[in-house]
Amino acid sequence: MQKPVQWGVLGAAKFARHFMAPAIHGANGARLAGLATSSAAKAEPFQAFCPDLTVYDSYDALLADPQIEAVYIPMPNHVHVEWSHKALDAGKHVLCEKPMTMKAPEFDALIEKRDQTGLLAAEAYMIVHHPQWQLARKLIADGAIGRLVHVTGAFSFDNRADTTNIRNRAETGGGGLRDIGVYVIGGARFATGQEPVSVQSAIRWEDGIDTFTEIRAQFPDFTYSTYVSIRMHPHQEMVFHGEGGVIRLTMPFNARVMGEARVELHRPKHEVQVTRFPGDDHYKLQVEAFCRSVREGAEYPCPLEFSRGTQQMIDRVFEKAVPL
Least buried of 47, 65, 79, 137, by fewest C-beta within 10 Å? Predict the structure, then answer.
């Protein structure tokens, strides 16, 4: 039996506490071994479910420990690249929260370092590990809805009251597009395997951050329209509309958190086939895929090249945007 991959977490972020650290702790082939935080109070919730957790008083101290093999980085967006490089330089495999970079070209040095070191480095883009998205991709490829004509998507929540949240701060790389635009963009790219030919967009700005973004794009075989917002009632879905049917994904981005993940296949004569995924945890599946790649050399479903493509489209959305 293979030894579990020994994981460390850089920082006691809320998202790490509620989602990724428990996922690492519960994943097959993984062991949550370390947490870097100078706050004993912030470490306590992690130790509550992982009593043997080693707490380091600095990020550098965790990276210096040869027992730690892989690190998860949940830090603010603007320092993701810096600490990903530091972790790779320290000989650690890296799973970094999205967006891993602020601009697409920043991926190039990470890809080069990944290849030079032989370490696994990836953006924590969990949805591609969920069977809901894998089924949608297969249905489209198999022609279940005929020729794909149009893709729509939406992702929104309202965090205006949380004024100290990093998503509401321009200096930490906040805004809706980087935080949740990656899902409506990357999800379409993953499901269809296509890249945009042209992009148009409109953005509503507030104190230096994008709070609402509308995107229209032309892909080689279909048109595309989506929006994301951090100032609207919570909502999310993706719809793939073909000549012979429709695929609708419910809760495509926060499965099990905001509701049940389902794939609805709408066919002629009002036939609807529904596949439900009530128990699948895409965070845990992501960690297990990462560990298989580290231990067995299995191909990782979301390489840096894919994440670079999503960031490239995000860059184009920013570049083409007209103000609202």
Answer: 47
pLDDT in tens, 37-61: 999 999 999 999 999 999 999 999 9
92 neighbors 71 (Cβ within 8 angstroms)? yes
| Catalytic sites, residue numbers | 98
CA distances from residue 124 to 214, 274, 289 in whole angstroms, order as listed: 24, 28, 11
User: In one letter, which amino acid is 305?
Assistant: E
Q: Which H, E and C letters describe the chain, residue by residue?
A: CCCCEEEEEECCCHHHHHHHHHHHHHCCCEEEEEEECCCHHHHHHHHHHCCCCEEECCHHHHHHCCCCCEEEECCCHHHHHHHHHHHHHCCCEEEECCCCCCCCCHHHHHHHHHHHHCCCEEECCHHHHCHHHHHHHHHHHCCCCCCEEEEEEEEEEECCCCCCCHHHCHHHCCCHHHHHHHHHHHHHHHHHCCCCCEEEEEEEEECCEEEEEEEEEECCCCEEEEEEECEEEEEEEEEEEECCCEEEEECCCCECCCECEEEEEEECCCEEEEEEECCCCHHHHHHHHHHHHHHHCCCCCCCHHHHHHHHHHHHHHHHHEEEC
**Predicted structure pTM score:** 0.96
Q: What tens digit of pLDDT does each residue of 269-318 get?
A: 999 999 999 999 999 999 999 999 999 999 999 999 999 999 999 999 99
Set out the domains of the chain in order of their start, with CATH numbers: 5-126 (3.40.50.720), 128-283+310-323 (3.30.360.10)
